[in-house]
């Protein structure tokens, strides 16, 4: 038994060390480290298939660490949110956001359901996942080109933040109604769906209210008090502990733990000590988040990975075209034609929330997301985070784009 545990500990330790090299190497060549984590997970799966060094307990350990990675990821996204600024700029960004979500989701559903011929539940998972974006990929390029602080760059961040919020909300609704669509529960399907969504939104509202009250009247004082008890060294540990509890409570209420982590992160983002937490959180983020992406790689269907099917090509086209048209058309209406291409292109990359939705569907069963669909999602994510930055750099080199949006 001790030798088995030692094997697991050795494996986890190797992953941590290798992930540091991956992060360093991919940063040097200008590619997102998540691509290296995908590859590491795929290699680990191949080695496990060959040598069987991981049994069910070992896989569960990796999945547990991956779940902690999701919580850390969503908590960080929440902590980096600027809710007050988002509310202030909502009218301007909402036009782009509405078109972005509706069109990208519709293109994903129509492609999956009508062109590929998948069932309605898998098609809904694709549609919901396609509404999400990964603005960090594009924002890095904007920042490198000195355009992130322009009006256009800030609008991009606002729309992407709204994408995060709507994506997480739609994810929660989908997870709640998917069993009803499968046929579980009594009563008419339409009534069941409306009832399920109503109960979900009511519970989410109550949970959100509790989180608001906690963050306003207890959260800051609790963070500072416990931090002082530990000699001023525990601020980030308290925040992480609160995030874990919020994630667990949201799960017990029937939500995804991603919702709880994100929501409490957003509310704690207004904490005056947030700036002091950023550097401390990076170490915990770097420890756990790679396990999420590595676990993604370990769930890839190796047989489907190297086969090019028409369904994969259709999904790739839908993923790129849906976001480009959705965000681009909204930008055309809101800001003008000259900015529509760059905003539409910037919203294409898919990573964190996109993969969380598809991974949760895979965990629910083949009726929700098949192994082949999940592998396609990884391929789409990989292509989007490689191709889009290369195209963006060429566009942002044009003077009219970067100068036209500056303060």
Automatic annotation (TrEMBL):
The reply to whether Repressor figures as a keyword in the UniProt entry is: no
InterPro entries reported for this sequence? Cation/H_exchanger_TM, Na+/solute_symporter_sf
Protein name in the entry: Cation:proton antiporter
- Membrane topology qualifier: Multi-pass membrane protein
Q: Upper taxonomic classification of the species?
A: Bacteria, Pseudomonadati, Balneolota, Balneolia, Balneolales
Enumerate the UniProt keywords alphabetically.
Antiport, Ion transport, Membrane, Sodium, Sodium transport, Transmembrane, Transmembrane helix, Transport
List, for all copies, the residue spans of the domain called Cation/H+ exchanger transmembrane: 17-397
Organism of derivation: Rhodohalobacter sulfatireducens
**What are the transmembrane regions?**
6-22, 29-47, 59-77, 89-114, 120-142, 163-181, 193-215, 236-263, 283-300, 312-333, 369-392
Q: Does the keyword Membrane apply?
A: yes
């Amino acid at each position: 038994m001790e030798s088995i545990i030692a094997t697991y500990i050795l494996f986890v330790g190797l992953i941590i060390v290798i992930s540091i090299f991956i992060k360093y190497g991919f940063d040097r060549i200008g590619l997102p480290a998540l691509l290296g984590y995908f590859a590491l997970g795929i290699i680990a799966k191949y080695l496990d298939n060959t040598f069987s060094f991981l049994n069910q307990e070992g896989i569960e350990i990796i999945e547990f660490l991956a779940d902690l990675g999701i919580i850390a990821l969503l908590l960080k996204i929440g902590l980096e949110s600027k809710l007050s600024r988002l509310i202030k700029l909502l009218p301007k960004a909402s036009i782009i956001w509405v078109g972005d979500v509706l069109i990208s989701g519709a293109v994903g559903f129509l492609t999956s359901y009508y062109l590929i011929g998948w069932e309605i539940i898998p098609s809904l998972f694709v549609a919901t996942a396609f509404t999400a974006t990964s603005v960090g990929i594009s924002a890095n390029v904007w920042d490198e080109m000195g355009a992130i602080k322009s009006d256009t760059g800030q609008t991009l961040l606002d729309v992407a933040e709204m994408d995060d919020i709507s994506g997480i909300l739609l994810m929660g609704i989908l997870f709640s109604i998917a069993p009803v669509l499968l046929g579980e529960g009594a009563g008419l399907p339409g009534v069941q769906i409306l009832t399920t969504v109503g109960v979900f939104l009511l519970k989410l509202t109550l949970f959100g209210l509790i989180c608001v009250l906690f963050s306003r009247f207890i959260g800051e004082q609790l963070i500072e008090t416990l931090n002082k008890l530990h000699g001023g060294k525990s601020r980030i540990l308290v925040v992480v502990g609160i995030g874990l509890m919020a994630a667990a409570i949201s799960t017990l209420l029937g939500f995804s733990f991603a919702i709880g982590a994100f929501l409490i992160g957003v509310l704690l983002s207004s904490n005056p000590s947030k700036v002091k937490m950023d550097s401390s959180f990076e170490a915990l983020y770097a420890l756990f988040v790679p396990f999420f992406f590595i676990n993604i790689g370990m769930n890839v269907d190796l047989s489907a990975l190297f086969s090019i099917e028409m369904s994969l090509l259709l999904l790739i086209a839908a993923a790129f075209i849906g976001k480009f048209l959705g965000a681009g058309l909204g930008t055309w209406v809101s800001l003008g034609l000259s900015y529509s291409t760059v905003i539409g292109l910037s919203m294409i990359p898919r990573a964190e929330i996109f993969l969380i939705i598809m991974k949760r569907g895979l965990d629910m069963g083949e009726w929700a997301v098949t192994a082949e669909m999940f592998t396609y999602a990884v391929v789409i994510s990989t292509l989007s985070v490689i191709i889009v930055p290369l195209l963006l750099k060429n566009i942002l080199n044009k003077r009219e784009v970067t100068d036209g949006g500056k303060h």
